Amino acid sequence: MGKKLVIDPVTRVEGHGRVTVHLDDEGSVKDAFFHIVEFRGFERFIQGHPYWEAPLLVQRLCGICPVSHHLAAAKAIDQIVGIDPGDLTPVAYKLRRLLHYGQVFQSHALHFFYLASPDLLFGLDSPNAQRNVVNVAIANEDLARKGILMRKFGQQIIQAIAGKRIHGIAAIPGGVHKTFTKEERAHFLSGKDLPNVDTMIDWSMETVQFIKAYHKENSAWLDDFATYPSGHLGMVSGDGALELYDGKLRAIDAQGNITLDDIACDDYIDYFNEGVEKWSYMKFPYLKELGSSKGWNRVGPLARLNVSEYMTTPMANKELQEFKSYTSGRPNNSTMHSHWARLIEVLHCAELMKSLLNDESILGSDLVREGVRRGEGIGIIEAPRGTLIHHYKVDDAGMITKCNLIVSTTHNNEAMNKAVRWVAKNVLDKKAEITDGMLNQIEIAIRAYDPCLSCATHAIGKMPLKVEIFDHNDNLINARYK
Predict the structure, then answer these.
(1) For the chain, which terminus, N or C, has the lower number of CB atoms within 10 Å?
(2) Between β-strands 297-298 and 231-236, what pairing exists: parallel, antiparallel or unpaired?
């Protein structure tokens, strides 16, 4: 009699997902799926709104990364008002970058310190009640304190530019809407009430050293856990540097061969398709030339480090080259190495923020440019979780007639399903008893991708994790609650 295990919901991710593991009569894993059970319909109900509302409306997609959607939409709307990438005023361009770096910095800090660190500090078989940020603070007060203040720093950068930390107003069509003051700049450079940007760099480096030491002690399972070949997609500059705001799209396969050769972001639609599966509301993007079975890619910190050749900041670039040397220059396909990659990006963003904060030109007042109206715009950035695409079409009255969003977690959909199947087949296969520790490993594999499934997150306390076993007719024969 076949059985089906259900993990519902998956915890310590942003939003609500569900995992089903299908077993045969002998307890062998037949298949496993990561289901996205939320349907929100943003692409449809944004239609009919004036184009200038898009950067404000799409922030409501997520309370964790609203800035990413805000800026991707703003880049698309820039094109609709006739402003191409690079045509912004220098002040607006730099302030948008500073805003974006603050967002990546705080989001990565949130994920590592609040969501992922319980998995690393307490082990695979630790009680579920222990696996939260409160117990991280009890076990390692210094690590937790620095993590909280690092996220606060990024949030305050966002507040200074956008007016508030969540769902602010920073970017407007063709520029930004407010100046950055001398007082705000001095606050982040000298930092009496909040550790300053130099401290952020120091703490970021300490965290990189922490994860490297952890890797050295736990390399056996980190190198092997949920490791499988995949493609990788990210944005790079003209000379191959890792790029987070403006650049070209590059993809490589699991061996490092280029499968998407630095294309202009405006041309993405010529290279990508989106597949669908009946068991998930989330689509499955892939490269047209390779097809759905071979053309899917991971995105996010691990993918970005794989596709880029160097970083433009010295400390992060040194760490990047060490990261690449770990796999002798070949693409790193180890899911759990995403945490190491993510913390290198934290250091990179800290250095980038310092560079911009020391640039007095960000205090300028030339904020907006206008051009000749167009009917279509495409905006692509590297959000914390990976490549984010916003595409809009408008009519003559400026009303949105079409919207297509390919969010980072959508790109990672197939990758997360591969990770779930890996754990199911390597950990659950033919086990007489399915323990909480075994089920935790499925969630650990998913959390490594930092999936943003909606605007909600479950980060603390006892979570309503439900595990159900069904027979081949989907009749419930056993149930467990965690």
Answers:
(1) N
(2) parallel
